[in-house]
Amino acid sequence: MSGGRVGHFLLAKVMSTSLSKVAKCEVNRLKLDKYVMKYYGRRRTVLARDEERLAKEGDVVLLKEMPEKVSKRVSHKVDRVIYSLGNVTDPITGLKCDKDGYWESRRGEWDENMMAKAAERTEEQYEAQEGTAV
User: Fold this and answer.
1) Which end of the chain is more exposed for a tag (fewer CB within 10 A), N or C?
2) Among residues 85, 81, 83, which one has the least CA distance to residue 64?
3) Are the CB atoms for 89 and 97 separated by under 8 Å?
4) Which fold has domain 3-85?
């Protein structure tokens, strides 16, 4: 390990967390082919120490290079989770969202629809009870 790279950060996607306190991460990089003068994508698999088990499979995490390797293959540690899979927050508004929009706006629509359906059901049940009682 070169002395100038201690504390080097990498952005990676967690592929597996099945190992004890270790996350298997994939780092995507662009490498320049100087002959063609074109960048090509390169992938690298890195094992990172995850003491607090912060990362889940599919999360995007920030990895920090450790001054000394913990083992032969583990040279980084999970610094923090950048994006949690399935739990996306819009950076501008700070609201939870997905491909269809914000969760908060749909919750109101869902509550209104459920209340209307419940009101219809109670009216139908009331009418059915009156019809059987008479």
Assistant:
1) C
2) 81
3) yes
4) OB fold (Dihydrolipoamide Acetyltransferase, E2P) (2.40.50)
